[in-house]
Amino acid sequence: MVKVYYEKDADLSFIKNKAIGIVGYGSQGHAHALNLKDSGLNVSVGLYKGSKSWAKAEAAGLRVSTVAEMARDSDVIVMLLPDPSQPEVYRKDILPHLLAGKSLVFAHGFAIHYKTIVPPKNVDVWMIAPKAPGHRMREVFVQGNGVPALVAVHQDATGHAKEMALAYAKGVGSLRAGVLETTFKEETETDLFGEQVILCGGVTSLIKAAFETLVEAGYQPESAYFEVMHELKLIVDLMYEGGMEYMRYSVSDTAEYGDYTRGPRVIDKHVKDNMRKVLDEIQDGSFAKEWITENDEGRPRFLRLRQENAGHQVEKVGKDLRAMMPWLKTTK
Question: What single-letter DSSP state applies at residue 84?
């Protein structure tokens, strides 16, 4: 049974007198920094000189310095950069200041699990991984709530790594909702798997295949878009609120019957077999190696795929139709 921690399980004193340095001020970085600041903790932000985020962080009342200066002055160093960027920044700006007894912290286990970062043995290494985008994390915190998170300890050099991690989780608000105990391995592999087969890769591929099937059968692209893309949010919101049972309760009996009888024909055994292959590539490190190599070579395949997918007909049709719905909130 998974272990779940709440606010009663954390003692903020473990981190109250520590200097916390946040590396990066993007989606996760700004949320962690501001939530910790509002919790009364000593937090600063480390950025490269010339960063566009420098002025934003200062305007929010945060102390800002270079990453190296922040690492030198911090007891707890929190890596909130994209996975491909972390190793170089770590080696250049953080490792020289990563003294015994300090904490190196992550919100995702990729760098530690796949060993693109190998910290010295005399520091704590732990993770608090909120299960929401940073802007949502910040929004919920301001409302007085929190988003769930995962906690994992990779190295416990001080003997207090978990207490520190839980105190940090309290500072960012996640213990208000609940923090589940896991490992760096489990968090990394399940996160990548979810992104690839459901949340991003699976859903977008299913939408494109369904859209193309309708258009190739002679239906209007606009009608196809509404049926396979626009209405998806309505269904996901129902599942988010109450699971698949609540979704099925909320739709028509016709839709529910089609769900039971046709869904398994589309997502059949061979799809699950392919999912296992994707999971194998995550577990044996071949996906990580491929992604690291892609970045080392300048992302040629990634950029080509991004351009190709942006030009898909479902995107062009959707852009025109969304222009008819000004109430939709769009963010960049």
Answer: G
